[in-house]
Design a protein that fits this description.
Elements (H helix, E strand, L loop, with lengths): L6 H12 L6 E4 L12 E4 L5 H14 L4 E2 L5 H6 L1 H6 L3 E2 L4 H7 L2 H10 L8 E3 L2 H12 L5 E5 L9 E3 L16 E2 L1 H8 L8 E5 L5 E9 L2 E9 L5 E3 L3 H13 L6 E8 L2 E8 L6 H8 L3 H9 L13 E3 L13
Parallel strand pairs: 1-2, 3-4, 7-8
Antiparallel strand pairs: 5-9, 6-7, 6-9, 10-11, 10-13, 11-12, 12-15, 13-14
Amino acid sequence: MNHWFSTAYNIIAMLRKDEPDFYVIGTNEFPYAGYQVHCDEFYTEPVLDEAAYVRFALDFCKEHAIDVFMPRRRLMAISRHKPEFEALGVKVLIDDYDKVELLNCKTRAYEAFADAGLNVPDYEVVTNAEGFQAAYERLSQKFEKICFKFERDEGGKSYRLIDNVKKGYAALFKKQTTRMSYEDAVAALQEVDHFSPMIVMPYLPDEEISADCLNTANGLIILPRYKGHTRVERIAYDPDILELCERFHRICPLETPYNIQFKYLDGVPYFLEVNTRMSGGIQMACLASGVNIPNIAVNRLLGIEKPWTIDRREKKITHVETPLIIPEDN
């Protein structure tokens, strides 16, 4: 496992739960990554550009006789070079590059979704401040709130909600890191002549659903997690969401774990994005459903189809932080 989110701690625990003899090697640029406490071996990665990183990963897999590579860092580059890993006998937990590249480009993905009859939000793609202003003007005539983020983004780092409400004392008690005024957004974008493609779209204020999915010989696993504004989330199986996931899979049949994000507006669920990896909260969906997606996925790569049954009772679930002691030799 290379430089995963902190979710790696839970993914490794789930792997070991049903397969305690798995031998896990972790790598990360950060020498104190918490998930190393679950690893049999852990190594600090060098800081490299994309091409050099792929070469490092190939050499590492060869040197350490890796059977299964679960990448998160440089996901698209690893997917592009997947045949080279397979030539070494390494199974890679990522789909083929044509699908990964499409889904990681949000505008191309939206175009494909819309062509297939799937609901996507109204949106515009802009590359300069003037385009942003025009898009904001058009969309704000139809929608109450507008947001934006760069087309290629991970973890929503560039996401901002346009908030023009005058700030006062009450704002001191609200998280402001994802909010900025229209004037501040324009001023920031005017600092450069052109920027990477950015998506401007309406803010969808209603419920958000994160559905972890995995195709298997016994059918498509779909675990929808309904996210609110607290740590308490809901695992439920709304037929509309299940049907949308099934429709997506018929259009784009991925073979490794993926995550679909939806959001509602006026009772209508819209596709937000499809992540070609497991979600940051997959451990909660797996615990509530009784389905161990990481373990099933790795075994599928090894040619083993493990049985599964979803506990479809609706459940509320939360998570707590756990203190860890990092091994001294790191």
